[in-house]
Write a structure and sequence with these properties.
The complex is a heterodimer of chains A (224) and B (374). Chain A is an alpha/beta fold and 224 residues long. Chain A has six helices and ten strands, in the order E-E-E-H-E-E-H-E-H-H-H-E-H-E-E-E. The two termini of chain B are 35 Å apart. In chain B, a hairpin with a 5-residue loop joins strand 6 and strand 7. Chain B folds into two domains: 167 residues, no CATH class; 192 residues, no CATH class. Chain B is an alpha+beta fold and 374 residues long. The chains are: A alpha/beta (224), B alpha+beta (374). At the A-B interface, helix 1, helix 2 and helix 3 of A face helix 1 and helix 8 of B.
Chain lengths: 224, 374
């Protein structure tokens, strides 16, 4: 069963009388343990595709199936539950809650749905942070962490609830090349180590080689 | 979890808000206590006597000091159908010597066992003979304590204090309750030429099945030259009380509005400041209810903290200020005001809660990539 299956997904916005097509009949399948890089210029529809895949936006047309769940017709409440339980996100810049420590930024995700007990959630958060090389930074607030460390905490948070699919938006845009490569290596190692699927949006073609497959998007149209 | 952690990391910010709310709560509770004490010092004697209907002479315009009920009026009033009990109630301001100093005291003369008796006896007993009196406890340090003897200056009539009342003063003066015979003796001693000592008002209780308001209406309809008021009307319509009540209520109302605005603006400001975090939390699976609950917990913590601070300050303020006007807190009114503060805090925070409820999780990407179409 594919981790993500988009079939003829279309997303349009209206601006006055004009219709803006952000995504045009996109069809994409991502296997269970596959990492797909979504590459395209600015304004091509990458983030829209990522948002629809993660239940942040609903498609205007088409079908979105994640981990076997067809979320195309989900209500806002169902989408919240879906995001909590089935996907992990790593966003571009605003990734962490500034008044929570690194550990708390992971544990809070469990708090939304109480998937685990407090102690168990804390132990999992610590294990993830340890794997991400942050064992000494668990009690630090985001403001006390470097850009790379913050991204690593965000990766940990994305994996906290053992999602079917991890969606990563421009993970290296705020990092220098060396740090960007380290973060990408970490993402690949963590995602592959868990046999989880991931879609990584990037405009930086140099980062695409970390993925199993690269998909290009231009003006809302996907090209394999 | 979220609410508690944020407050722990921003102790100063939330502490200052709780302090500000506490000062406002103090302002409200202290003013209310001051107002209640002032009112009970003005009219407590009327409020805490057993007659539920008081009949004034019409020309007195609800002013006890200017009211005299003539014998024909007494007869006409007692003839009205629906009276359970009726008794004369006299009031006069006399100069007395108490604790070695002269003071003006309000003296009430009531018929023992009849309407008009003081109802807030807190120590001792009611007077039985002409040389006995019950005094207001608030004045016990001024020579009006149990066992003390006060003497009316004109006529030199000694009165032994055999009981104490609370919240039963009149005209912000030490107040003595004596039997109507004792009152007559005091008035005669002060003015030996007086032909008769007449009651200021008639104190009544209605017969079974008749309400005080119904009885007052019947008397006003049937007896000329008098004005019957229920006890609460007599209190509220005493000279100066309405104006004082309106002024205090206006101040209290403004303070309550300020509470709502302070809490409302504070939470709106800190919510706007942390919108990116709230949107992020929505995006990664926090429900609207989770975030709203977190804010409600913070509002509750601030309000409870403010109420505790306000209550402590109020008690400290009362302890410090009780040397002049005796001030005490009316528990029922304070509880109502505390409830009003809680409700207004929630109303003040509604805009913030609505703002949070309307967060769009998709903003997490549009905020970061200018429009979300990249």
């Amino acid at each position: 069963m594919p981790a993500l299956e988009l079939t003829n997904v279309r997303k349009t916005y209206t601006s006055g009388d004009a219709e803006i097509v952000a995504l045009d009949h996109a069809t994409l399948s991502v296997a269970e343990d596959e990492i797909v890089a979504l590459v395209g210029p600015s304004g091509s529809g990458k983030t829209t595709l990522l948002s629809i895949s993660g239940g942040l936006l609903t498609p205007t047309e088409g079908e979105v199936v994640v981990g076997g769940r067809d979320i195309s017709g989900y209500s806002a409440q169902q989408l919240t539950e879906f995001r909590r339980s089935s996907v992990g996100f790593v966003f571009q810049s605003v990734n962490l809650v500034p008044f929570l420590t690194a550990r708390e930024n992971l544990v809070v995700v469990n708090d939304f749905g109480r998937r685990r007990g407090r102690k168990e959630a804390r132990a999992r958060a610590e294990k993830l942070l340890d794997e991400l090389g942050l064992q000494r930074r668990m009690d630090n607030l985001p403001g006390q962490l470097s850009g790379g460390e913050r991204q690593r905490v965000a990766i940990g948070r994305a994996l906290m609830n053992e999602p079917d699919l991890v969606l990563i938006d421009e993970p290296t845009s705020a990092l220098d090349t060396k740090l960007g490569e380290q973060v990408m290596e970490l993402i690949v190692s963590e995602v592959k180590g868990r046999s989880t699927a991931a879609v990584i949006v990037t405009h930086d073609a140099r980062m695409a080689h970390y993925a199993d497959r690269t998909v290009t998007i231009t003006d809302g149209v996907l090209a394999a | 979890m979220l609410a508690g952690l944020e407050m722990r990391r921003a102790k100063l910010r939330f502490g200052l808000l709780a302090g500000a709310v506490g000062l406002l709560v103090f302002l409200i509770l202290f003013q209310q206590a001051l107002f209640g004490s002032l009112l009970s010092s003005f009219t407590g004697a009327l409020e805490h006597q057993s007659g539920t209907v008081l009949v004034y002479s019409a020309e007195a315009r609800k002013n006890l000091a200017g009211s005299v009920i003539l014998p024909p009026q007494q007869a006409a009033v007692t003839a009205v159908d629906g009276i359970g009990a009726a008794a004369p109630l006299g009031e006069a301001t006399l100069t007395v010597e108490a604790g070695g100093e002269e003071a003006n005291a309000s003296v009430f003369g009531f018929a023992p066992g009849g309407p008009g008796e003081p109802t807030r006896l807190v120590a001792g007993r009611l007077p039985e003979g002409t040389g006995e009196a019950v005094a207001s406890r608030e004045d016990r340090d001024a020579g009006f304590d149990l066992g003390d003897t006060v003497t009316s200056v004109k006529g030199e009539v000694p009165l032994k204090i055999v009981g104490l009342t609370e919240r039963s003063r009149y005209s912000v003066s030490p107040t003595l309750w004596v039997t109507f015979d004792g009152y007559t003796a005091l008035r005669r001693a002060a003015n030996p030429d007086a032909k008769a000592v007449l009651p200021s008002v008639m104190a009544l209780t209605p017969a079974e099945g008749v309400s005080p308001a119904q009885l007052a209406t019947r008397i006003n309809d049937q007896v000329d030259g008098v004005e019957a008021l229920t006890r609460s009307e007599a209190v509220a319509q005493s000279p100066g009380v309405a104006a004082t009540t309106t002024s205090f209520q206006l101040i209290l109302g403004l303070a309550l509005v300020v509470v709502a605005l302070v809490i409302g603006f504070f939470f709106l400001i800190i919510t706007v400041q942390k919108l990116p975090s709230l949107v992020l939390l929505r995006a990664v699976g926090a429900s609207t209810g989770y975030l709203v609950r977190a804010i409600l917990v913070q509002i509750a913590a601030v309000v409870v903290g403010g109420l505790v601070i306000g209550a402590v300050l109020t008690y400290a303020g009362i302890a410090a200020a009780s040397t002049g006007l005796p001030i005490s807190v009316d528990v029922a009114t304070s509880v109502a005001l505390v409830a009003a503060v809680i409700v207004l805090a929630l109303i003040g925070s509604l805009f913030t809660l609505v703002r949070v409820a309307r967060l769009d999780p998709a903003d997490v990407v549009s905020r970061q990539s200018l429009g979300g179409l990249s």
